[in-house]
Amino acid sequence: MENLIKIDPNEQIEKITKWIRDWFDENGKTASAVIGLSGGKDSTIVAALLVKALGKDRVVGVMMPNGEQKDIADSQKIAELLDIKTYTVNIAPAVDGEKKALEEAGVTMSNDANINTPPRIRMTTLYAIAQSLPNGGRVANTCNKSEDYVGYSTKYGDAAGDFSPCSDFLVSEMRMIGDALGLPKELIHKTPSDGLCGLSDEDKLGFTYDTLDKYIITGVCEDDAVREKIDRLHNINLHKLKTIPMYKK
Q1: 78-87: buried (b, 16+ CB within 10 Å) or exposed (e) per residue?
Q2: Which site from 34, 53, 187, 208 is most exposed, i.e. has the minimal number of CB atoms within 10 Å?
Q3: pLDDT tens profile 48-91
Q4: CB of 54 closer than 8 Å to CB of 23
Q5: At what angle are helices 224-236 and 209-218 packed, to 10 degrees?
Q6: Smallest Cα–Cα separation from 223: which of 233, 234, 212?
Q7: 71 and 39 in contact (C-beta within 8 Å)?
Q8: Distance CA 171, CA 212 (A)
Q9: Using CA atoms, how far apart are residues 189 and 209, in angstroms rounded to an integer?
């Protein structure tokens, strides 16, 4: 994959951090950046970029296990490495409470609803913390271009946020940026997962990020079935990348 990637990661780091500073100058001169720390590459990289752009005192990391999170030590590791303030909010009671309330209302939650409710509660948690900080907070979106292309995100969950520093970078590019930042390789190159269902992202998608990135860059995918799946996921999830449709009189 690296021979297909044209970016200079160090140059991009400087451009991203300048963009973050400029955005905060316009949208919250003294506000903190609030970020959910999953222990995965994207939140790790974005957190590091925020510290580089704003300083550690203006970055707040939030860990949000749904009950027990086996890899929460990875989230704690990056928080300690970056020396940022953190909160740990166990969302299990909120998730269980929502399910109970719906059951009492006569609603049987679908599988999709069960999957997407925790990420939405996590985003609610991030905004609650952001609005409770002394100088206010702005919530960082940590999506990347590869995930966005196939809609691998929860609308109004992890797809939400106030600003998105890395959504124009493929997974392959994100790894290069993480390496250039000097972040722990075991976090930047760990098998990605949502930390909720026990499966890796690639298990659920049915193809690797390298295959996806190559297809996005070149339009080439040797496996017809995989290419068709990528195209289908891209088309049915485009609505996640658009602003809410509005009727105009």
Answers
A1: bbebbebebe
A2: 208
A3: 999 999 999 999 999 999 998 888 999 999 999 999 999 999 99
A4: no
A5: 80
A6: 212
A7: yes
A8: 9
A9: 12
